[in-house]
Amino acid sequence: MSVAAAGVPAWVDLGTSDLPGAIRFYGELFGWSAQPPDGPDAEGYTLFSKDDKLVAGAGSVSTGGQPPTWTTYIGTLDAQASAKLVESAGGTVLMPPFDVLDRGRAAVFTDPAGASFAVWQPLSMAGAELANVPGSLCWNELTTRDPEGAKEFYGAVFDWECRDTPFPPIMYTEWLVEQQPVAGMMPMVGDDWPADLPAHWMVYFAVNDCDATAAHAAALGGTVSVPPTDLPHGRFAVLNDPQGAFFSVIRIAGD
To answer: Is the model's pTM score more than 0.85?
Structure first.
């Protein structure tokens, strides 16, 4: 299934308080190359590529309390229609649809539990050109304390269907488009989740070696929030870059 398809995560980007530092960190960690911004109108927004294919973006955030974070963009045919669906389903429009040069239209929302996400309506840029290989995005996962509410909300906005799988002590959910998994959902159950941790979308990047990548991130000034851990589908870790933005890496079993 194409990453540019409606209802499928199409893009991720980083909002950071130190764009030059982020460019260095992710360039060394994943082997990404940074493309120069598309002129002054791009306001410094930087595109990352690997093997000459777009993988992610990064831009500066103000210091007005917005923490550095990775944002998941879900493909849509009509950003304005998506905004109306978000509002009618109980979500909040943080940034109404806006043009991103000639590349597409975007909008930023929160779901009823407070998890932020965005949509991407492609024009000249469909989204990520490389996925599911080391150094690129391979999974997007909602982490929430209200999984049942999330099922209703995202089903209404993106027409997602669900497939639940027991993963003791929780039930893991895959979001489906045309019966194909496009993202996941992890319920925040138990004492392992800090009480002040808000609902959020996690981005996962594929790597060849989870342990080596975690160690490399720490050597570059990042931190390891969840050390390398085995899962049925691979070995993963949760990392923070030097500015505090969290993300996950995973070596998928069998790769």
So the answer is: yes
